[in-house]
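Q: Sequence in, structure out?
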Amino acid sequence: MLKFLINAISRALSFTKTESKGTLVLILIILMALLFKNYKVNQLKKHKYSPTDSSALEWIGTVHASYEIRKEKPEEFDKTVYYPAKKNASAKKESKPAKEKLPGDEPFIVADLNTANALDLQKVKGIGPAYSERIIKYRDILGGFTDTTQLHEVYGLHPETIRELAKHFSIQSSVKRIEINTDSIKTLIKHPYINYDLARIIINYREQHGDFTSAEDLRKIKALDDRTFLRLKPYLE
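A: Exactly. Output:
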C-alpha cells in the first residue's frame, strides 16, 4: 500500500522516491494533527461545568437576581455585581504576605569614614574585600581622610561607587598630623602628597631658616605648588 502511494506521488508530482517518501510522511503528520485537534474539540464539548466553589455559585445567583431586578425595576439595578473579579483581586492583594527583608536591605549610616572597618565598607554596593582593604590601607598612609573626595585617589574605585560611599559615610574625626619640624625624610616621603624631592627641600629649608611656625610658612618654598599645598594643609594645621 505504501509502495503504491509513493509511486502515485512520484508519478503525479515528478518527485524522486526520496521526495515522495518525505511528502507522504508530511501528509500523515498533517492528518494526525487534524485528528487530534478534532478529538480535543469533541472532548471539550462533552465536558460539563460543575462548579464547586460556593463563592462562585453565590455570585452567579446574585447576578441572576440582579438581572431580574433590572428587567422589572431598572432604577434599582446595581451593576457592581458584575465585577466580582475586581473584589477578589483586592482581597488577594490584601492577603499577600509582606516581602521578607533580607540582611543589608535596611539603610545604614556609619558616622565616620576614618573609623569604618572593612565590613562597614562592604555594605556599600560595589565594595568587596579587595576594595575595602585598599581604602583602609590608603587611609592609613594618609593619616585619615579629610574629605570624601579623596576616595577618587584610591586606585580602581569607580565614580558611582564613590558616590554611594559618600551617601553613607562622612568625615568627623581628625587626621594624623605631619610633624613638619621633626619628621625625617624617610617619614615624610611615606605620605602620598610628599615625594622625595619635596621632602628633601622641606628638610633643607627648616635647617637653613629654622622651624616652621605655621602651615603658611610652606608657601615660602617655591618648589611647592598651590595644589600640593592645599592638599597638605589639613595634615599640618
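The radius of gyration is 42 Å.
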